[in-house]
Amino acid sequence: MRWDRLFDDLEAQLALDEVRELDSEVADRTRRERAQLDLHTRLLANLDAPRAALRLSGRVVTGRLLDVGPDWALVETAPERPVLVALPAVRAVSGIGPGARTPSVVARRFGIGAALRAVCRDRAVVEVADVDGHLATGTIDVVGADHLELAEHASDETRRTANVTGRLLVPFWSLGSVRRI
After folding, report:
1. Are 169 and 149 in contact (CB under 8 A)?
2. pTM of the full predicted structure?
């Protein structure tokens, strides 16, 4: 009997050690997988989140998360009023759930330049905010490899040569958001 209890005790200790080792391995793998997640994949899992709040320097863009690219997010702040937010300008995000979704190969290549070119083609009057919160209004004339060129004019005027008061180059790395007016 004594030997049986000893062997039972050793078996129980061995089983407990195996459970602890497995738990440790699972926790380590989970940490490694989470370390692979980026903001893009987290936001992709939360498309249509109704109250996503992206905090930029000095302001918060809150609304329904419409779309996400590798370096941008499109947030509908009011019906038919989307705001294009540059992800490098985002300081924090709230109002989203857990999870992540791997983007398609095409989605990974659809950067902020492509999104801005769509706005440029529409010739829409926009409000451009930089990472410091400075605002400028006008029409995007050119979207380069790493910047946009804004023909500055009043928000209630169309883009005509006589209405243009200046030209503003905004590098993508200093872009905060672009909102159609």
Report:
1. yes
2. 0.80
Domain hosting 4: range is 1-36
Residues 162 and 146 sit within 8 Å (Cβ to Cβ): no
Output the domain CATH number for residue 107: 2.30.30.100
**How far is CA 26 from each of CA 30, 36, 38, 98, 127, rounded to the nearest angstrom?**
6, 16, 21, 19, 48
CB 152 within 8 A of CB 138: yes
Q: What is the b/e burial string over 11-31, where b = at least 16 CB atoms within 10 angstroms of the residue's CB?
A: eeeeeeeeeeeeeeeeeeeee
- Reported as a single tens digit per residue, the pLDDT across 1-15 is 677 776 677 777 877
Average pLDDT over residues 135-143: 98
Are 98 and 156 in a shared domain? yes
